[in-house]
Amino acid sequence: MDKDIKNNSIGFCDSGVGGLTVYSKFRKILNTENCLFFGDLKNSPYGNKTKEQLVAFSRRVFDFFKEKGVKAVVMACNTTSASTYPVIKDEYDFKIYPIIQSCAKILAGLDVKRLGVFATASTINSGVYESEIHKYNKDMVIYSQSCPDWVNIVESHTQNQPEKIDIIKRDLDKMMANNPEKIVLGCTHYPYLLDVLGEFVSKDLFIDPSEYFVDFIKSDLEKSALLNTQTEVGTEEFFVSANPNEFKLASGMFYQVDKVEVV
Ligand code: DGL
User: Which one of the listed residues 13, 35, 77, 147 is annotated catalytic?
Assistant: First the structure.
């Protein structure tokens, strides 16, 4: 692999600020990488869209990254990892890291027999969390539940409004009836709701897979001899397809973004 490619950027994509829960952790462990982040706010939320729509959205974002000459793209989005990754994975000549498939082995190895998964309707309907985890551990019982309102609550930055807290509590109660030992936050937006969830149950109940995800990406970049060789802090650029001000406002909890370009 030639040196110039190593120093090309890595793209990160999601429907909106959710991807920043991954990006913020990535930036902490690999801050010499040059990064591009794309939030597809025009099409957010992804979780209630058809597979055909999602494939079209992903191709648009991936074509954008291709033009920028990236060396890899991080799908910091469970919904597209579940539905569009299997369709587009061979269409591009750069590495693609999908969050669910990259974390499944680690989740399957946890000392847990009853695992809850909160995710978008699209992710839950795909059954990809179950199929990926059961590749490595057939005995783990998985309780999957969609939380259709949570992404909009995060994007509109309204998680502390009483009626939104009621919605979150109602979804949580439904899951808790299964008595899960741990609950995976299977949508990158959901870690923004940890403080609200923590008002009702211990925050230790929740697993944010982005911790595992960024370690996986780092070791794969190392193995593939794709780590950036520069010593100075990498550049970063943020792009959205709409609503830059909403993006900046909602970003604050995980990664304060001050400059965003609409493309
Ligand atoms: N944050 C994304 C995910 O992990 C997309 C959520 C959405 O836009 O519905 O699934």
Answer: 77
Residues with CB under 6 A from ligand 1: 14-15, 18, 44-47, 77-79, 120, 123, 151, 187-189
pLDDT at 250: 87
Locate 248 and state its tokens: 């900046």
Locate 81 and state its tokens.
Answer: 């990892």
Q: Which atom of ligand 1 is nearest to the CA of 47?
A: 9
Domains of the chain, start order: 3-98+211-262 (3.40.50.1860), 102-209 (3.40.50.1860)
Instruction: Please confirm, yes or no, whether 187 is among the known catalytic residues.
Output: yes
Per-run averaged pLDDT (10 residues), the chain, 263 residues = 78 96 97 97 96 98 98 98 98 98 98 98 98 98 98 94 98 98 98 97 98 97 95 96 94 91 97
For the chain, first and last CA: distance in Å? Answer: 31
Q: Is 13 a catalytic residue?
A: no
User: Which residues, including other chains, have CB under 8 Å from residue 223's CB and lie 6 or more apart?
Assistant: none
